[in-house]
Please model this.
Amino acid sequence: MELGNKRNGAATYKRFFESKGYRHVSVDWNGEDGALKRDLRQPLNLGTFDMVSNIGTTEHVAGQEAVWRNVIEAMHIGSALVSTTPMPGQWSWHGEWYPTDAFYRSLAALNGLEIERLYVSGVEPRKMWFFRAIRRQAGTFQMPDARLIYRNR
Model:
């Protein structure tokens, strides 16, 4: 499952993954490029997926707890989460909600995720967090402390 309807030029991630034989579900408020038209602040109830990706989407969603709840609830034991988000103090013109490394570490600890990678990519002023984790334990979603998400105004 992909949050948003990620494009790379004229190509969509959806088209790429489907061309490789994968079932791909993308969700976005605009419903474009084959995405299901959904508000990420509302429960998605789409079942679980082998991979959930957030490639620059959550920073645009005002309901941070709801969007991260949707991410975790879409994961089963063994699912991967791949997330890239702007670092606080970077991309000041883009989005409003920027998770910190402490947010990602807390998200993992509270929700049974094993972190495989957490690092900074890019160069000033476009540095981003790259986070990859595998869900190892089931449980009820728990939101990290909201102070671990920087609000860019």
